[in-house]
Amino acid sequence: MRDLLEDIGLVVFDLDGTLVDSVPDLTAAVDAALLEAALPMAGEDKVRRWVGNGSRVLIERALTDALGEAPGEVFADTTHEQFLSYYAEHPCVQTRLYPGAIEAIKGFWVRGIPLFIVTNKPEAFVGPILETTGINGYFEGWLGGDSLPRRKPDPMPLLYACERFDVAPACSMMIGDSRHDVAAGKAAGFVTVAVPYGYNHGEPVSSSEPDLLVESLAQLV
Ligand SMILES: O=C(O)COP(=O)(O)O
Ligand SMILES: [Mg+2]
Fold it and tell me: Residues in the active site (predicted)?
């Protein structure tokens, strides 16, 4: 591990399933939107498997599950709007940092390594969650799934971070919980680190073959 970390000049974290367990609040917002659409609620186990490709895809998966077929565009749009308005009001009620997250964040931070977040969740929700969980001050910034034309697994947001901090991809680390994080990291030329406790559509993230798999982020520092 020491070799992997030696030349690292930029650390990019995924948010949902890596730094924070956000599924309880996401589930509340999904279920509120389903209820509004007069459909049965989904519950946490399903939502945990559906998170990872941004909120619009999350809602499409929830509607497909409830309806037994893919929803129409307009219905999906309306339900997504319901989700967004509920989540905007309650982005961080039950959301908690994972054990080891604060140790890792502080460990990199005291070494002077810039910390950045690349998440697929809408950008507007990132600030409130970082603020409420008390980690806002450690990060130089973030990108959401709607910040750039392409999101993870595309490498675009990771390469944007490299340019912004003037750090080569080979000296940058992507830390995430899903195959989209590992794929984006590999495509960008980053060192890839994965955690097994998050959300990866019900599959082990080890299948994506990250450079390093750690049980707890604290192991990194
Ligand atoms: O909101 C999502 O779909 C996933 O978010 P993440 O990229 O922070 O895991
Ligand atoms: Mg994630």
Answer: 14
- Give the ligand with the smallest distance to the CA of 51: 1
- Return residues with CB closer than 5 A to ligand 2 (ion): 14, 16-17, 177-178
Superfamily of domain 2-21+95-220: HAD superfamily/HAD-like (3.40.50.1000)
User: What pLDDT, on a 0 to 100 scale, did the predictor assign at position 5?
Assistant: 75
Q: Measured from the CB, is residue 14 less than 6 Å from ligand 1? A: yes
Q: How far apart are CA 8 and CA 190, in angstroms?
A: 10
ipTM metric: 0.97
* Domain topology for 23-89: DNA polymerase; domain 1 (1.10.150)
Active site residues: 14
pTM of the complete model: 0.96
Any ligand 1 atom below 6 A from CB of 53: yes
Binding site membership of 17 for ligand 1 (Cβ less than 6 Å): yes
